[in-house]
Design goal:
Elements lengths: L1 H10 L18 H33 L3 H21 L1 H7 L1 H19 L7 H27 L6 H29 L4 H15 L22 H10 L3 H21 L2 H5 L5 H30 L6 H20 L1 H33 L6 H27 L13 H33 L27
Helix pairs in contact: 2-3, 2-6, 2-7, 2-8, 3-6, 3-15, 4-5, 5-6, 5-8, 6-14, 6-15, 7-12, 7-14, 10-13, 10-15, 10-16, 12-14, 13-14, 13-16
Protein name: MFS transporter
InterPro entries: MFS, MFS_trans_sf, MFS_Transporters
Keywords: Cell membrane, Membrane, Transmembrane, Transmembrane helix, Transport
């Protein structure tokens, strides 16, 4: 089977990375992986250096009211979460690598305007902040699509490095922003602009070419190829929709830790200790992401394992971590640190795994559109989970783990378990559906897809797994 799949990968038409393919099936070089990490880490550091302090900075340094500052911050977050969908046509036109560069350039310009000392009305600051969010959304969506176009055995590795870079950047960014806010508040956005320029400088070393086109798709049942391609760019199929919605359960659980935990713990733990808990997460991700991802790839390639088992295990560990966090008001710092270790171990598995699966389950969607749509769904799930969790968790008079304040954590644990079970069931169904085709594969040439099946250039070469 391995020999047949190797021949199949060798005979696939190569496409350029500006569109939807890598243009090269050779393994990623250390230079390319370094460029991925530098670009993603520095851009995240720039965004998170500003975002946590943006409202305070606008009120203290630019004289906005609290309500107006809240609208500006909300615009930046919304644009960063949902902007990828709006910019998919532009990303298709520019190509993936050029879109990454354009996104970082746009973010650098937007942050430079924020730090230029201008006096703008509230809607002016809102527009600039939204531009920064849109630009970073463009770069992030294009970079994820670019990683999805890596050779099949390199995708999970690429997303693992991206996850490591995101966590490193999001940990370092607030430290930089806090120091600048005390030292020279006016230079806070300029520091973000400088970090985005560093990310821009790393773009030429990314894999692929600057321009390219999306690979042509074969017509199905005599349908017009151009019309089918136009519809396929934006019409998600049922497997992709089901996968994206199921994953929302994991993101709701994630929100209870990263978005709700400070409000839930309230005055029961000091800010310093809470910072130590989150710092532990960042350190563990940077230290363990690569070896854990290597172990994940071995599990995916195992004869009796696969995506379903790996995803179920990650969500079970996530549920256990969330339950421990529910006891955080009375359990002390040691319990919180143990919970964060479990949470991080689960995140090291499911975060890159879900990103890799988007490219493989996209169906007729273009890769760029798939990551943009998935990002909106998961961002909405995290936002809804954060809103509901905060609404219930801010109850200082109810310290017990069985109180209403802890309900978001018990609910999140149940959602994580259900998500894992659903993914396990989905994995078994996919295995059963594809195995008969593998049994009859000897009747086909290695480069011939089954009858009625449209070749997806991003299928992972592991036939018994989704």
């Amino acid at each position: 089977m391995t020999d047949r799949l190797d021949r199949l990968a060798a005979k696939r038409p190569r496409t350029t990375a500006g569109g939807e393919g890598t243009g090269d099936d050779r393994p990623l070089t250390a230079r390319q992986l370094t460029a991925l990490v530098v670009a993603r880490a520095t851009s995240c550091a720039g965004f998170f250096a500003v975002l946590p302090y943006l409202g305070l900075w606008l009120v203290d340094s630019r004289g906005l009211s609290g309500a107006d500052a809240g609208l500006v911050v909300g615009a930046a977050i919304l644009a960063n979460r949902a902007g990828g969908v709006l910019l998919v046509p532009l990303i298709h036109r520019l190509g993936l690598k050029a879109s990454v560069g354009a996104g970082y350039l746009g973010a650098a310009l937007a942050f430079a305007v924020l730090g230029a000392g201008l006096r703008l009305p509230a809607y002016g600051w809102l527009a600039v902040a939204a531009l920064a969010g849109l630009s970073l959304a463009m770069a992030t969506t294009a970079m994820k699509a670019q990683v999805a176009a890596f050779p099949p055995d390199q995708r999970l590795r690429g997303f693992s490095y991206l996850n490591m870079a995101v966590n490193a950047g999001s940990a370092v960014g607030p430290v930089i922003g806090g120091a600048l806010l005390e030292w020279h508040a006016g230079r806070l956005p300029l520091a973000a602009a400088a970090l985005d320029l560093v990310a821009l400088a790393a773009v030429p070393a990314l894999p692929g070419t600057w321009r390219g086109s999306e690979p042509p798709r074969q017509a199905t049942d005599g349908a017009d190829d151009s019309a089918e391609k136009g519809r396929g760019r934006w019409l998600p199929q049922r497997p992709f929709v089901a996968f994206s919605l199921l994953v929302c359960g994991t993101w709701v659980a994630y929100a209870q830790v990263f978005d709700v935990l400070p409000a839930y713990l309230g005055d029961t733990i000091s800010t310093r200790d809470l910072g130590l808990v989150f710092t532990l997460n960042a350190v563990l991700v940077v230290a363990l992401q690569v070896p854990v991802s290597a172990l994940s790839r071995r599990v995916l390639n195992g004869p009796r394992a696969g995506f379903g088992l790996l995803c179920t295990a990650a969500n079970v560990v996530l549920a256990a971590a969330v339950v421990l966090f529910a006891f955080g008001r009375t359990g002390g710092l040691g319990l919180l640190l143990a919970a964060m270790v479990l949470f991080t171990l689960s995140e090291l598995v499911w975060s890159p795994l879900y990103d890799a699966q988007v490219g493989e389950r996209r169906g007729n969607l273009s890769t760029t559109a798939a990551y943009a749509l998935a990002g909106v769904a998961w961002g909405a799930a995290e936002s809804a989970g954060a809103w509901l969790g905060t609404l219930l968790a801010v109850r200082p008079a109810e310290p017990g783990a069985l109180s209403l304040a802890a309900a978001p954590y018990w609910g999140a644990a149940a959602l994580a378990l259900l998500t894992g079970l659903a993914m396990s069931w989905s994995g078994r169904r996919t295995t059963d559906r594809r195995t008969p085709a593998d049994r009859t594969s000897a009747d086909r040439t290695p480069d011939t897809p089954p009858s009625g099946h449209e070749r997806n250039t991003h299928d992972v070469d592991m036939p018994a797994r989704p």
